[in-house]
Amino acid sequence: MSDDTSLLAILEQRLGERPVLRDPADQARYLSDWAGDRLGMPLAVVRPASTAELAEVVTLCREHGVAMTPQGGHSGLVAGALPASDGRELVISLERLNRIRDIDPVNFTMTVDAGCILETVKQAAAEHDCDFPVSLGAQGSCQIGGNIATNAGGLNVLRHGMMRQLVLGLEVVLPDGRVWNGLHALHKETAASTSSSCFSAARAPWASCPAPYSSWSRRPNKAAPPCWGCPPWRRLSISMSWPGVAAATCSRPSN
Question: Which domains can be identified in the chain, with CATH numbers?
Answer without folding.
Answer: 3-93 (3.30.43.10), 100-218 (3.30.465.10), 221-255 (no CATH)
